[in-house]
Amino acid sequence: MIEAAFQKKIIISSNCSSGPKEFIKNERAGFLFNSNDTKSLHNAILKFKKSSKNILQKKINCAKYKSLIYKTEHHSELVSKYLIA
């Protein structure tokens, strides 16, 4: 998801327990569907297809911004581990 956001791709993700809900943030940065639910996936894809270019661009921009924050925080954590060790 982080890589897709960084590459400015639309994200359609299952709402699994590993964090997509927090990253996508009320569908501001992509589309969510319920895990193991094909109807929910179908509805997410329909939402994507019906979205205007403006809405999709806003989702892409939000996701890209969040990916940069994640990458910065992640790299800071890694550097901190080496500095403390």
Please give a structural write-up.
By secondary structure, the chain is mainly alpha-helical. The protein has one domain (2-84): Rossmann fold (3-Layer(aba) Sandwich). Helix content is 65%, strand content 7%. The chain contains four helices and two strands; from the N terminus they run αβαβαα. Strands 1-2 form a two-stranded parallel sheet. It is flat and about 50 Å long.
Break the fold down into its secondary structure elements and pairings.
Elements: H1 2-6, E1 12-14, H2 20-24, E2 31-33, H3 38-50, H4 53-84
Parallel strand pairs: 1-2
Low-confidence stretches: none
Give the domain tally: 1
Assembly context of the chains: single chain
Order of helices and strands: HEHEHH
Number of helices, counting only DSSP H or I runs of 4 residues or more: 4
Radius of gyration: 15 Å
What's the name of the CATH homologous superfamily?
Glycogen Phosphorylase B
Which percent band covers the strand fraction?
5-15%
Task: Write down the overall geometry.
Answer: flat
Overall number of strands: 2
CATH architecture call: 3-Layer(aba) Sandwich
Q: Which class best fits the helix and strand makeup?
A: mainly alpha
Distance between the termini: 30 Å
Main sheet attributes: strand count, strand direction, barrel closure: 2 strands, parallel
CATH topology: Rossmann fold
**Strand order across the biggest sheet?**
1-2
Mean pLDDT across all residues, rounded? 87
Which CATH C-level class is it? Alpha Beta
Helix content: 55-70%
